[in-house]
C-alpha cells in the first residue's frame, strides 16, 4: 500500500501532500521536514531509495525523484515494488506535464486543486488505480470541461444541502 | 496559469508566496482563517461558490502545516452540493482533512450513497474515491453491496469499475465480512477475464488483498493470473497506451506476480510449467539499457519475478541463474539496480543452498561499501553482515574495520556494532577477536557503545590464555598519542587485572604501567576515574614486595579524591585507601575477578532486540490506544532501549552504594562514613540471598533462584511495596468474611483454565463447581452451587462482572439453596473480541449471621476460544511471510520465565490449545504452533506462534506471534507471556481454622487475590508487582567487596 505522496520544492515547501492513512497536521509537517532533511543532503546520480525506518517503521520504504525544483516522494510499504513505484511517479509527472503543457513549480502551486484531481486518478486508497497517463489526461479534461460548464450556467443556489436536512 | 474562476484563491496563494518569512506567513494565514471562520458563521449569505473557494483555501493552509480545526462541516456539506465543482471540492477536501472516524463523515454516508447509486458517472467516481480513501467500518457495512454491484456491472464504464474495485478493497480491509467468500471467489475469477487493463490492474490489487487473507478460497484465480502474465509477457492484446517504454503494463505484471506469491505453491504441473516459462523469459530477456525509465520499468518486473522464483522454490539451476543475475546487477552503473541487487541478494540468503554462490560476489559487495550513495552502502553492509560466516569472517570484518575510518558518521555506530558482533560470532581465534575490538575502539571510539568493550573484558576474563596477550595489546595502545577515552577504560581495566602478567617485559613494571595510565587521568571524564582508581588499587595489590614510592604516590591520589564531590569516586578513594593499608588482607579482597557466567552476547541480543523493540513499541502504542484508562500497562513493558547497559559488567562484586534496596546495614554504615563490613563468604550474606530470591526469576540473567519466590520475606522496600499494593486493593467488605476457603482459589482457577470442569471454590458451607462447553466464539458454563450443610444457605447472590469483550448472561440464581442440595445456573458466554481481561463472579451468601462474599475469576479466558490447528509448512510459511510486521506480527524477548524443558513447554502450549507443529522449524530449540481464535469481531482467525528458546538460558525466550488482527496478536502475545512468566502469587500460611466465628487476619484471606484484582484492575496490580520486581534490573552477583566499574552509577 502507498502510505503517502508528497511533492515539495527544493527548499522544503510542501506543494502537494496526500496521506492515505490519516496523519494529523503536526505529524505531517514533522514528516515532511524530516524527509526534506534527508533528501536535500543527497547527491545527484545516486539511487532513488532512502531508508526511512526511523520515521515510519521497519517495513516502510521511500522513493523520490527530482524534477527541476521539485521533489516527488512516494512512501509505501513492502507490499509494493520499489521500481514500479518509481515508474508510477514518472507517469504521474508525465500526466502533469501533459495537463499543464510543460509543468513547472508555479503550475503546481496555483493549481494544487487540479493536481489533487490528477493524483486521485492515479492512486486510490493507497493502491495503483491507473497507469496509463493518456487515460488520466482524458479524464481530467472531461472534468475541466464540466467545471467550465458548471461555471457558465448560473444556478440559483436554492437547493438545500445536506445541512438543511 | 490562473486557477479556473477562483481569483480569491489565486490571490491568497500569491500573498503567501510573497511573505518574506514564516512570521509574515503565519499572520497572513491567521487573517485568512479568521475571515473564513467569520464567513462560515454567517452562513446564510454564503454561496456554494464562495464555500468552495474557502474550503480550497483551508486545504492549502492545511498543507502548509497549519492546523485547521473548523470548517470540516462545511467541507463535508459540499458533498451534497448539486454542481460538480462544489461537490468535487467537498469530496477532495473531506478526504484530506477529515479522519475516518470523524462524526461529520458518518452524517454524509447517505449523500455519498446517493452519488454511488445515482446515474451520474462523475459523481459515482467522486464518491468511490472518497470511500476508497477514507471509508471506515460504517461505510463498509452500508455501501459494500452497492460497490460490488458497480464493480461487476456490465453497463458501467471501466472508469467507474476500476474505482469500485479499489473502493471495495478499502471496505474489505475495514470489515472483511463485507465480502462473502463463497459468493465472491467466482466473481473474482470472472473479473480476471477482464480485457480493460485499468480495471484488471485494480482488480489484481483487490485479489492480492483477498488472497493474502485467505488463499484457499481463491485457488481458481491462480491459473488465471498465470494466463494474464502470459498475455502480458507475449504482448498479446495489450493496447499501446498500456505499454510503458515497450514493456506491457509493468504494474500489472508486478501485481500479478505479487498475487501469485500469496499462494503457498502451485500444484498443477501445467500451470507451473507455463509460469516458469514466463519467468524464464523475464529473467533472460531483461537487459540494462541506457534509458533510466526503461530500466526502472523492466527491472521492476524482473525483481518481482526473482521474488516469485524464490517463493516457488525453483530448482537449483534457476536459483543459480538468479544469483548470477544479481551478481551482474550489483556491478552496473544504474544506482537503483545496484541497490535492489544488493537488497535481493540479502533476501536470497534465506533460500538454502545459494550462500556459496553469493559468496563468489564478495569482492564486488565489498566494493559497494564505497559506493557514492549511502543507501547503497547501507545495503552492502546489511548484505555483508548477513552473508558472513566462519569462512569469510576475517576478510569481511577487516574490510569493515578499514571502512570505518572513512564511513559516514551516520553509519559508524551500526558499522562498529556489526563488526563487533561478527568478530564475536565467527572469530577463528580469540586473540584476533581482541585485536578487532581494540581496533574498533581506536578507530571509532565515539561510536563504540559500552556493550562492546564490556564484552571484550568478559572474554578476556573468561579465557586465561588470552590474558597476557590482551594485557600486552592494551599496554601497546596506551603508548599511542591521544587515545580515545573508551580505550583508556578498557586498557586500564585489563591492565589492572592482568598487567602483572607482563612484569618481565620492558616498560611493563607496575610503576611504568601506573604512570602511563595515570598520564591519562587529567584527560578523562568523571565516569572513567573510578575505573582508574580500581586499577591503581589492583596495581598496588600486585606489586609484591610493595614499592614504597609507588605506594605513596597512589595513596596520595586516593587521598586527593577522598574529598571528591562525586560520591562514587569519593567512596572508592576512601575504601581503597583504607583497604590498601591492610597489607596482606588486600590480596584477598582485591583478588582477580571471577569468571563471568556464560551468556548470550549482549551485543547479539541487542541486535536481535532492536527488531523486537519496534514490535513492542507499536504494541505499546496499540495498547495505549485501546485502553487509555489502563495507563500503567504501558509502563509494564520493558523500556524501549532494552537491556540496561549495566548488565554487561554489572556482575561486579560491589555492595552497591547508590541503590534504593540497600539493606539497612549498609545505609547505616554509609551514613557514618565508615567502611562496610567485609564478608569473605559472599553467598551466605543474608542480603545477597534475599536479593537472589527476589530478583531471581525476573532478573534478566541473574543466578537461578535458590528458593521459590513465595518464600521471600517482605523485608526490602521493594517487596513491601508490592505487598502493600495487593493489600490496598482488597475491598473493605472483605472484613465481613469469616469463612476460610478450602484449597487455593488461584490454583483452582488456573486448573480450570486448562480443563473444562472442576471445582472453582469451596468452603465449609458451599462448593461451587464449573462445567463448560466451548464452541467457536461461544460457550456455555454451568455453575453448580452445592450446599454442604444441613441448614439452608440464604441471601444467595451471584453477580457477573463481565469485561467489555464478553457478553455473559447468567440465568436466575435462587436466593436460597436448600440443605444438601445443588443448583445449576447456566451462564452463556459470547466472545466479542480478543482480550485477556477476566470475568469475575461476585458471589455472596449468608450462613447463620455471617455474610460471606467472594470474588472469583471465571475461567472464560482467552484460550477457551482457541481451537488447535495443525499447520503444514506449505500453509505456515506464506501466512507467516504475509503477516510481515507490527501490528499484525509482534515479537518480544520474554525474560524471567519459569524455566522448563522444551517438552514441558510444548505440553503447556498444547494444553492452552496452541498446537505445536513439530518439524516446521529446523532449529530443534524452537517451537512453532498454530491455533484458530474465535470471536464475533474477528470470526475464525488463524494465529501463528514461534518460540525461540535458548538452551543455555531457560529463563528467557523470544516469541513471535502473528495473526490477521492487531488486537488479537497483541492480546495473544500478552496472554502467552502471562502463562510463561512466573508471577509470584502471595501464598499465605494456611491459618489454622478452629471456628468460623473467629475473625481472620489478614482480611484478604478468603478472596482469591487474583479475583479481587480482576474485579478492579487485574492487570494493573499484577503488572505493578512485576514492575516493582523488574524495576531493579541489575545483576547482583556476589557481594564480595568493593572493586569495580562505573556501571554502578548507572543504577
TrEMBL record, chain A:
Highest taxon listed in the record's lineage: Eukaryota
Classification via Gene3D superfamilies: 3.30.450.60
A GO biological process held by the record: intracellular protein transport
Main location: membrane
This protein's UniProt keywords: Membrane, Protein transport, Transport
Domain AP complex mu/sigma subunit, residue spans: 1-146
Record SUPFAM superfamilies: SNARE-like
Subcellular location: Endomembrane system
A UniProt-annotated Pfam family: Clat_adaptor_s
One GO CC annotation: endomembrane system
PROSITE patterns documented for this protein: CLAT_ADAPTOR_S
Family statement: Belongs to the adaptor complexes small subunit family.
Protein name (Swiss-Prot/TrEMBL): AP complex subunit sigma
UniProt organism field: Abeliophyllum distichum
Organismal lineage: Eukaryota, Viridiplantae, Streptophyta, Embryophyta, Tracheophyta
Automatic annotation (TrEMBL), chain B:
Gene3D superfamilies found in the cross-reference section: 2.60.40.1230, Leucine-rich Repeat Variant, TATA-Binding Protein
One example of a Gene Ontology biological process annotation: intracellular protein transport
UniProt GO cellular component terms: AP-2 adaptor complex
Protein topology in the membrane: Peripheral membrane protein
Subcellular location: Membrane, Coated pit
Coiled coil recorded as keyword: no
Ranges of residues in domain Clathrin adaptor alpha/beta/gamma-adaptin appendage Ig-like subdomain: 750-859
Chief location bin: membrane
UniProt KW Membrane keyword: yes
Swiss-Prot/TrEMBL keywords: Coated pit, Endocytosis, Membrane, Protein transport, Transport
Pfam families in the cross-refs: Adaptin_N (PF01602), Alpha_adaptin_C (PF02296), Alpha_adaptinC2 (PF02883)
Ligand binding (a 1,2-diacyl-sn-glycero-3-phospho-(1D-myo-inositol-3,4,5-trisphosphate)): 7-8, 49, 53-57
TM annotation in the entry: none
Assembly, per entry: Adaptor protein complex 2 (AP-2) is a heterotetramer composed of two large adaptins (alpha-type and beta-type subunits), a medium adaptin (mu-type subunit) and a small adaptin (sigma-type subunit).
Recorded family membership: Belongs to the adaptor complexes large subunit family.
Role summary: Subunit of the adaptor protein complex 2 (AP-2). Adaptor protein complexes function in protein transport via transport vesicles in different membrane traffic pathways. Adaptor protein complexes are vesicle coat components and appear to be involved in cargo selection and vesicle formation. AP-2 is involved in clathrin-dependent endocytosis in which cargo proteins are incorporated into vesicles surrounded by clathrin (clathrin-coated vesicles, CCVs) which are destined for fusion with the early endosome. The complex binds polyphosphoinositides.
Protein name (record): AP-2 complex subunit alpha
Amino acid at each position: 500500500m502507498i502510505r503517502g505522496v508528497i511533492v515539495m520544492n527544493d527548499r522544503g515547501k510542501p506543494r502537494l501532500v496526500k496521506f492515505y492513512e490519516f496523519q494529523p497536521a503536526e505529524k505531517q509537517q514533522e514528516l515532511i521536514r524530516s524527509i526534506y532533511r534527508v533528501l536535500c543532503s543527497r547527491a545527484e546520480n545516486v539511487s532513488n531509495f532512502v531508508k526511512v525506518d526511523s520515521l515510519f517503521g521497519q517495513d516502510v520504504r521511500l522513493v523520490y525523484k527530482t524534477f527541476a525544483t521539485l521533489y516527488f516522494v512516494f512512501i509505501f510499504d513492502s507490499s509494493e515494488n520499489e521500481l514500479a513505484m518509481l515508474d508510477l511517479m514518472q507517469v504521474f509527472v508525465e500526466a502533469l506535464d501533459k495537463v499543464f503543457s510543460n509543468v513547472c513549480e508555479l503550475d503546481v502551486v496555483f493549481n494544487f486543486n487540479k493536481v489533487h484531481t490528477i493524483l486521485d486518478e492515479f492512486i486510490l486508497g493507497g493502491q495503483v488505480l491507473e497507469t496509463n497517463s493518456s487515460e488520466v489526461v482524458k479524464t481530467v479534461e472531461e472534468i475541466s470541461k464540466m467545471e467550465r460548464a458548471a461555471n457558465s450556467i448560473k444556478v440559483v443556489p436554492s437547493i438545500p444541502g445536506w445541512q438543511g436536512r | 496559469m490562473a486557477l479556473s474562476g477562483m481569483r480569491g484563491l489565486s490571490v491568497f496563494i500569491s500573498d503567501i508566496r510573497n511573505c518574506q518569512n514564516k512570521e509574515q506567513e503565519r499572520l497572513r494565514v491567521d487573517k485568512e482563517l479568521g475571515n473564513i471562520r467569520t464567513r462560515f458563521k454567517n452562513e446564510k449569505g454564503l454561496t456554494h461558490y464562495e464555500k468552495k473557494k474557502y474550503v480550497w483555501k483551508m486545504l492549502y493552509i492545511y498543507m502548509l502545516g497549519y492546523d485547521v480545526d473548523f470548517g470540516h462541516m462545511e467541507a463535508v456539506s459540499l458533498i451534497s452540493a448539486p454542481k460538480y465543482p462544489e461537490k468535487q471540492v467537498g469530496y477532495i477536501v473531506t478526504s484530506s482533512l477529515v479522519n475516518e472516524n470523524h462524526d461529520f463523515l458518518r452524517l454524509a454516508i447517505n449523500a455519498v450513497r446517493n452519488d454511488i447509486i445515482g446515474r451520474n458517472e462523475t459523481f459515482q467516481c467522486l464518491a468511490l474515491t472518497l470511500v476508497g480513501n477514507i471509508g471506515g467500518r460504517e461505510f463498509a457495512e452500508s455501501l459494500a453491496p452497492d460497490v460490488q454491484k458497480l464493480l461487476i456491472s456490465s453497463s458501467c464504464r471501466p472508469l467507474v469499475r476500476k474505482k469500485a474495485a479499489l473502493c471495495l478493497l478499502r471496505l474489505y480491509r475495514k470489515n472483511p465480512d463485507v465480502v462473502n467468500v463463497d459468493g465472491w471467489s467466482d466473481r473474482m475469477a470472472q473479473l480476471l477475464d477482464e480485457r480493460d487493463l485499468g480495471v484488471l490492474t485494480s482488480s489484481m490489487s483487490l485479489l492480492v488483498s483477498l488472497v493474502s487473507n485467505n488463499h484457499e478460497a481463491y485457488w481458481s484465480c491462480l491459473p488465471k493470473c498465470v494466463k494474464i502474465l502470459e498475455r502480458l509477457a507475449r504482448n498479446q492484446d495489450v493496447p499501446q497506451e498500456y505499454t510503458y517504454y515497450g514493456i506491457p503494463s509493468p504494474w500489472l505484471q508486478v501485481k500479478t506476480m505479487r498475487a501469485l506469491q500469496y499462494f503457498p505453491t502451485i500444484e498443477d504441473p501445467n500451470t507451473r510449467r507455463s509460469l516458469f516459462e514466463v519467468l524464464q523469459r523475464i529473467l533472460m530477456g531483461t537487459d540494462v539499457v541506457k534509458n533510466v525509465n526503461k530500466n526502472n520499468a523492466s527491472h521492476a518486473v524482473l525483481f518481482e519475478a526473482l521474488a516469485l522464483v524464490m517463493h516457488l522454490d525453483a530448482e537449483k539451476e534457476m536459483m543459480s541463474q538468479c544469483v548470477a543475475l544479481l551478481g551482474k546487477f550489483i556491478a552496473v552503473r544504474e544506482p537503483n539496480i545496484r541497490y535492489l541487487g544488493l537488497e535481493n541478494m540479502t533476501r536470497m540468503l534465506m533460500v538454502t543452498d545459494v550462500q556459496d554462490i553469493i559468496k563468489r560476489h564478495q569482492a564486488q559487495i565489498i566494493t559497494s561499501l564505497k559506493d557514492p550513495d549511502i543507501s547503497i552502502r547501507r545495503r552492502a553492509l546489511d548484505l555483508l553482515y548477513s552473508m558472513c560466516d566462519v569462512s569469510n569472517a576475517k576478510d569481511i570484518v577487516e574490510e569493515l574495520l578499514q571502512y570505518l575510518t572513512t564511513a559516514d558518521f551516520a553509519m559508524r555506530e551500526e558499522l562498529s556494532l556489526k563488526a563487533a558482533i561478527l568478530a564475536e560470532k565467527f572469530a577463528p581465534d580469540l586473540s584476533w577477536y581482541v585485536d578487532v575490538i581494540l581496533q574498533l575502539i581506536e578507530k571509532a571510539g565515539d561510536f563504540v557503545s559500552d556493550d562492546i568493550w564490556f564484552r571484550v573484558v568478559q572474554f578476556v576474563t573468561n579465557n586465561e590464555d588470552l590474558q597476557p596477550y590482551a594485557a600486552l595489546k592494551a599496554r601497546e595502545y596506551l603508548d599511542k598519542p591521544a587515545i580515545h577515552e573508551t580505550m583508556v577504560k578498557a586498557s586500564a581495566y585489563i591492565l589492572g587485572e592482568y598487567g602483572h602478567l607482563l612484569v618481565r617485559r620492558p616498560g611493563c613494571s607496575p610503576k611504568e604501567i601506573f604512570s602511563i595510565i595515570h598520564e591519562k587521568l587529567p584527560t578523562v571524564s568523571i565516569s572513567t576515574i573510578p575505573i582508574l582508581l580500581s586499577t591503581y588499587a589492583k596495581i598496588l595489590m600486585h606489586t609484591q614486595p610493595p614499592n614504597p614510592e609507588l605506594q605513596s604516590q597512589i595513596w596520595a591520589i586516593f587521598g586527593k579524591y577522598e574529598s571528591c564531590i562525586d560520591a562514587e569516586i569519593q567512596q572508592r578513594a576512601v575504601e581503597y585507601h583504607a583497604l590498601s593499608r591492610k597489607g596482606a588482607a588486600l590480596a584477598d579482597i582485591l583478588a582477580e575477578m571471577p569468571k563471568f557466567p556464560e551468556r548470550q552476547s549482549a551485543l547479539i541480543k541487542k541486535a536481535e532486540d532492536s527488531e523486537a523493540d519496534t514490535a513492542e513499541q507499536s504494541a505499546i502504542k496499540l495498547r495505549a490506544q485501546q485502553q487509555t484508562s489502563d495507563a500503567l500497562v504501558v509502563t509494564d513493558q520493558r523500556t524501549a532501549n532494552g537491556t540496561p547497559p549495566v548488565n554487561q559488567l554489572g556482575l561486579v562484586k560491589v555492595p552497591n552504594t547508590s541503590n534504593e534496596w540497600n539493606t539497612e546495614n549498609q545505609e547505616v554504615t554509609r551514613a557514618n562514613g565508615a567502611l562496610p563490613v567485609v564478608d569473605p563468604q559472599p553467598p551466605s550474606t543474608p542480603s545477597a540471598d534475599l536479593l537472589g530470591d527476589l530478583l531471581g526469576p525476573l532478573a534478566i540473567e541473574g543466578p537461578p533462584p535458590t528458593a521459590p519466590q513465595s518464600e521471600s520475606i517482605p523485608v526490602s522496600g521493594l517487596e513491601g511495596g508490592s505487598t502493600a499494593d495487593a493489600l490496598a486493593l482488597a475491598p473493605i467488605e472483605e472484613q465481613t468474611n469469616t469463612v476460610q476457603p478450602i484449597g487455593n482459589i488461584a490454583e483452582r482457577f488456573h486448573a480450570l483454565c486448562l480443563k473444562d470442569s472442576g471445582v472453582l471454590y469451596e468452603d465449609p458451607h458451599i462448593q461451587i463447581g464449573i462445567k463448560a462447553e466451548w464452541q467457536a466464539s461461544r460457550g456455555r458454563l454451568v455453575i453448580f452451587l452445592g450446599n454442604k450443610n444441613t441448614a439452608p444457605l440464604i441471601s444467595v447472590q451471584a453477580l457477573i462482572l463481565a469485561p467489555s469483550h464478553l457478553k455473559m448472561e447468567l440465568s436466575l440464581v435462587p436466593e436460597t439453596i436448600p440443605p444438601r442440595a445443588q443448583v445449576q445456573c447456566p451462564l452463556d458466554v459470547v466472545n466479542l473480541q480478543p482480550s485477556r481481561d477476566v470475568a469475575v463472579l461476585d458471589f455472596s451468601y449468608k450462613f447463620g449471621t455471617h455474610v460471606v462474599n467472594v470474588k472469583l475469576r471465571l475461567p472464560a479466558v482467552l484460550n477457551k476460544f482457541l481451537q488447535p490447528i495443525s499447520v503444514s509448512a506449505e500453509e505456515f510459511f506464506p501466512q507467516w511471510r504475509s503477516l510481515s510486521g507490527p501490528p499484525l506480527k509482534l515479537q518480544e524477548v520474554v525474560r524471567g520465565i519459569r524455566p522448563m524443558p522444551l517438552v514441558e513447554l510444548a505440553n503447556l502450549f498444547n494444553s492452552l490449545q496452541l498446537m505445536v507443529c513439530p518439524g516446521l522449524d529446523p532449529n530443534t530449540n524452537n517451537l512453532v504452533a498454530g491455533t484458530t481464535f474465535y470471536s464475533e469481531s474477528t470470526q475464525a482467525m488463524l494465529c501463528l506462534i514461534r518460540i525461540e528458546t535458548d538452551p543455555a538460558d531457560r529463563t528467557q525466550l523470544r516469541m513471535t506471534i502473528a495473526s490477521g488482527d492487531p488486537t488479537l496478536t497483541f492480546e495473544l502475545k500478552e496472554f502467552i507471556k502471562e502463562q510463561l512468566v512466573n508471577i509470584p502469587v502471595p501464598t499465605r500460611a494456611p491459618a489454622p481454622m478452629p471456628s468460623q466465628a473467629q475473625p481472620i487476619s489478614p482480611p484478604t484471606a478468603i478472596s482469591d487475590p487474583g479475583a479481587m484484582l480482576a474485579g478492579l484492575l487485574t492487570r494493573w496490580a499484577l503488572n505493578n508487582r512485576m514492575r516493582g520486581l523488574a524495576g531493579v534490573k541489575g545483576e547482583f552477583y556476589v557481594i564480595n567487596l568493593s572493586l569495580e566499574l562505573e556501571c554502578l552509577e548507572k543504577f
